[in-house]
Every structure is written in C-alpha cells, then in structure tokens.
Specification:
With about 425 residues, the chain is mostly helical. Helices cover about 80% and strands about 0% of the residues. The longest helix has about 35 residues. The termini are far apart.
Length: about 425
C-alpha cells in the first residue's frame, strides 16, 4: 500500500497538482483500496491532525507578519539595520540579511519575510546598482532565516509531529540562525569587494540614534514575544496572539499607517496563506496515519539503523535525502510526513531530537530556495518582476553557503544545543 500511495503522490506532483490535493488523493487511494476502513476515517483523521493547540500559532504568526508589513514596522526595521551596516561596501546587501534575521524573530515565516522585506530592499538594491537577479536571490536566501530564527512555523510543526518541546526547539534555532546570517553577510561582503558593487550603500542612511528611535517599537516586539515564551508568561501559541495584538497597536495607534481597508486586505491574505498550510497539514496527517498503520516508520527506522550504524553516516544520508525531498515537496508537508518516521531512528542512534529537528528544519528550508518548487524563489521573483530562470546563476553560491552551514550544524551539535542546555538544563 505504501509504495502505491507514494507513487500516486509523486505522479500527481509531476503533473503539477497542488500539494495538498496530491497528498489527499494518494491517501484516499490507500484508504479505499488497501484497507477495510470506512471513508469516515478520512474525516476523523483530518480532524485529529488539526485538533492540536500549538497549530493555532501558525495563522496568528502569519497575520502578525502581514500586519507588520502594512503597518510600517518592516520599513523601520530596514532603516535600523541600514544605519548599523549601511556605511560599508555591500552594506545594503548585509542590511537585507540583518533585517530578515530581525523580522524572522517576529513573523516565523520565510515567505512573509520575503514579501515584507523584499518589497523594500530589492528595489533599493537595484537603485544602488546591484543586479536584479542577485538582489532577488539574496532576498530569497536571507528570508530562509524566517524558519530558523524563532518563532518558527516549521519548528512548531516538528514539535507537534514528534512530541518534542517547542520552546526547546525555538531557543536552539538561535545558534544556527546567527551562523547562517553571519556566513551570508561575509559572502555578500566579499562578493561586493570583488565585483565593485555597493560602494554607495551609505547614501541616505539615518544615524543609528535616529533609526533606533524610529524602530524602537518594532525592536521591542521580539523582546516581548521571546521574553514572554522563555519567561513562562505565555506559551508559543499564546505568543502568536500577543504578536498580532502588539502589531495592531503599533500599526494603528502609534504609527497610524493601518486603515480598515489595509487591515482587511492583510487579514484576507493571511487567511488564504493559513488555509493552504492547514490543508497540507491535514492531508499529510492522514497520509502519515495510513503509513503508521502499515508499520512503514518502524520498517524504515530499522533499515536506517541497520544500514547506517554510526550517527555521522546516518545524518549524512538523512541530509542528502532531505535535500532532494525539499526540492520537490513543500516544507510543512515534508515535516509532517517524514519527522515521525526519521526522528525515532535518530533517537535510537543517540541523536538528540532537538538537534535532529533543527537540522531537519534547516535542511528543508533549503528547499525554499531550490528549484523547481522553491516558494521563496517564486516570491522573490514576483517582487523583482523577473523570471525564475534569471535568478538561478546568482543563487548557486547562496545554496552552497547554506549547505556548508548545514554541515556545520549537523556535525557540531553544541552549536544547536548550547542555548537549550543553558536555559532548560
């Protein structure tokens, strides 16, 4: 049954059927032709999959990111980051990385980060002489920090799927996030020095004091959200609601840039994005249920442990596998389907589930910037108004940088677990 379901799913992917529908049809084929369960089980398992309190954080973090975009918070974060690093050659490109890192600490979504920050920084980089494909590729890559720096929607999904502590996953994302941000900043600095771009990036930047004062309310947001989570004031799910309320207060009352039509458009956009993700989660949950009933996770786990008897070889094999999967399957679906299968095998080999979850999220985030289904690429190309074929050449070095960081994160677990052990142990 499992092989038929996988074949149907991959075949529908190849035909460009939407991911949620493809997974749902594959699960329906397995349910109808290979089990004696009534179709009522389909509705029941969809409900069970979605009936999890942590999942409520997803639509609220998406809404918070969209409100920040229309409420002037994103623009002020860009000006703040530019005031810090805009004076050096390539400072505007580094501003993109730094702003995405800060924005990621609020929105939890890489696509939201791409649109919110890219709509400001891609035109700005182009105006300062950067090639359009390079600007779009940098924005798509830097926005990946949206799923590494907490709060992170994929980390919430991993925690729900594997019963791993979400706060521990969140705080373990700081080390990898800073590593990736630093590596990207070094690369764009060296690229600018080699190509001669970015010599006038300091033009028009505000003083650090002025930019900090203007962005004070925006900078306070991640302090409140993350401080509340780790201080035990509220859960990650409750933090998502706090983020929405805070973004509304700042956008409506303080900055006064949000009107009713603008707010309704942001809500509509958030509802559509949330519905797509929830549909994928629901169908992937049904798919996983049927695989579990057939004993597929246990069989794969036993095979992996028997084939790759050392943790190092196991992690290398998993990374290569996830890299290929991430190129074709959406991140949320990959986590919901694969995390319950791979995590038990990793745990049996002595790999910390928090470390494994972080590696899995970082790896699958690569899929957001790799063809043919990289959602960040499509978002960045839409903002930059270029074809996806134009973005590929400058994208290759960025993929290499992220993959190198992934290897460091994989084989230096202390980078991931240091903050977790510092806070929770």
């Amino acid at each position: 049954m499992a092989s038929v379901m996988l074949a149907v799913m991959l075949g529908l992917f190849a035909l460009s059927v939407p991911i949620a529908i493809a997974i749902g049809i594959a699960a329906l084929v397995g349910l109808e032709y290979f089990t004696r369960f009534p179709l009522l089980v389909m509705a029941q398992q969809i409900y069970v999959t979605l009936d999890r309190f942590p999942l409520a954080a997803i639509p609220f973090f998406i809404l918070a990111g969209n409100i920040m975009e229309v409420g002037g918070i994103s623009r002020r974060l860009v000006e703040f980051a530019k005031s810090l690093v805009g004076g050096i050659q390539g400072g505007l490109a580094i501003t993109c990385v730094l702003t995405c890192m800060i924005f990621a600490a609020i929105s939890g979504s890489s696509v939201a980060t791409t649109f919110a920050i890219g709509s400001i920084l891609i035109p700005a980089m182009v105006k300062h002489g950067y090639p359009v494909p390079f600007a779009a590729a940098l924005q798509a890559t830097a926005a990946e920090l949206g799923v590494v720096i907490p709060p992170s929607i994929p980390m919430i999904l991993f925690g729900v799927a594997t019963q791993t502590s979400i706060p521990e996953l969140f705080i373990s994302g700081f080390g990898p996030g800073f590593l990736i941000a630093g590596a990207l900043s070094v690369y764009v600095f060296l690229w600018c020095r080699r190509t001669g771009n970015g010599k006038n990036d300091g033009d028009g930047r505000l003083s650090v004091l002025t930019a900090t004062r203007q962005a004070a309310w925006a900078l306070l947001m991640p302090v409140i959200i993350l401080g509340g989570i780790y201080g035990g004031v509220f859960t990650p799910t409750e933090a998502s609601v706090v983020a929405v309320v805070y973004a509304l207060i700042v956008g409506v009352v303080i900055h006064r840039e949000i009107t009713w039509p603008i707010l309704l458009k942001a809500v509509e956009k958030s509802v559509i994005s949330s519905a797509v993700i929830m549909m994928i989660i629901a169908m992937a949950g049904l798919f996983s249920y049927l695989l579990n009933r057939q004993g597929v996770p246990d069989a794969i786990g036993e095979w992996l442990v028997a084939t790759f008897q050392s943790p190092a070889l196991f992690m290398l094999a998993v990374n290569l596998f996830l890299f290929v999967v991430g190129m074709f399957v959406e991140t949320s679906a990959s986590i919901i389907v694969l995390a319950p299968i791979l995590t038990p095998a990793a745990t049996e080999l002595g790999i910390d589930p928090v470390h494994f979850g972080t590696v899995m999220v970082v790896n699958l985030a690569l899929g957001m910037i790799t063809p043919p289904f990289g959602v960040n690429l499509f978002a960045a190309c839409q903002v930059a108004r270029i074809g996806i074929d134009k973005i590929i050449p400058p994208l290759i070095p960025f993929v290499a940088v992220i993959f190198t960081c992934l290897m460091v994160i994989t084989y230096v677990p202390e980078l991931v677990l240091f903050t977790r052990d510092l806070v929770f142990r």
